[in-house]
Structure formats: C-alpha cells, structure tokens
Write a structure and sequence with these properties.
Helices cover 0% and strands 32% of the residues. The protein is mainly β. It starts with a strand and ends in an 11-residue tail after the last strand. InterPro entries: MATH/TRAF_dom, TRAF-like.
Length: 129
C-alpha cells in the first residue's frame, strides 16, 4: 500500500485541509494474498505530544467498494484509484492545542501510522484476530 498525502488539500479539501489517500501497489507477497483486497485500513495522524487524540480514519474495502481500487496491481503499473479523505484534517487543527495537549505539526513534521486488517474468505490465515 501507498499513502498519498496532499498537504494543500485535493478536491473539495483544496486550500484548507490535508487530504490522505491509500493506494494498492505491487508487492513481494502479492501471489500469496487474496484478490480483490477486502479489509479495513486505519489511517492515523499522530499527536506528537501524547499517545492520545490521534486523528483517525478507517477506509473499508468490501463488496460494495467499487472495482479498480481494490484489485491487484501488476508489477510495473501504478494504481490510479485511491480511497481516502479529501478533508482528513483542517489546517487550523494542526497547531498546538494546549487544552487537549495536542499538536500534529511539530518541527515541520507530520507522523502517520497506517495499519491494515485483512478480511479473507478463502485464506483464513491472512486475517489477524
């Protein structure tokens, strides 16, 4: 997977938000994975002051997710279909917020954590519980 971050926003988030999208990309273990991809991808922008108040979003890949964004990407190709948020977090929320002990942008850096939980129908060993 690849995380695309548009700091100046994209689409209806342009100019006032950070936009974030997940793309499937070719990888070393694609032959052992189940396709199309089904599962939940959790995207978090980390609070750099404490381990709480992280900004979180969950992207669900399931039967109702439209086609190309969840299909296997062939080596040498780049997926043109990503899923995510055009308005993940407003620019104003990045600053230090003393009452919540929260600051996402610190020393000109943002930190993201991305985790995936696979839902498998034919390869149950891929799904972690």
């Amino acid at each position: 997977m690849r995380l695309r971050v548009e700091c100046s926003g994209f689409g209806d988030g342009k100019g006032h938000y950070i936009s974030c999208y997940i793309y499937l990309v070719p990888g070393e273990y694609d032959d052992t994975l189940e396709w199309p991809f089904y599962g939940d991808v959790t995207l978090e922008l980390l609070n750099q002051l404490e381990d709480r108040n992280h900004r979180k979003g969950v992207i669900r890949y399931n039967e109702s997710t439209p086609g190309p964004g969840k299909e296997r990407v062939i080596r040498g190709e780049v997926s043109k279909h990503g899923w995510g948020y055009s308005k993940f977090i407003p620019h104003a929320a990045l600053r230090h917020n003393p009452p919540q002990v929260c600051q996402y942008l610190k020393d000109d850096s943002l930190y993201f954590r991305v985790s995936a939980k696979v839902t498998s129908k034919t390869k149950p060993w891929l799904a972690l519980t």
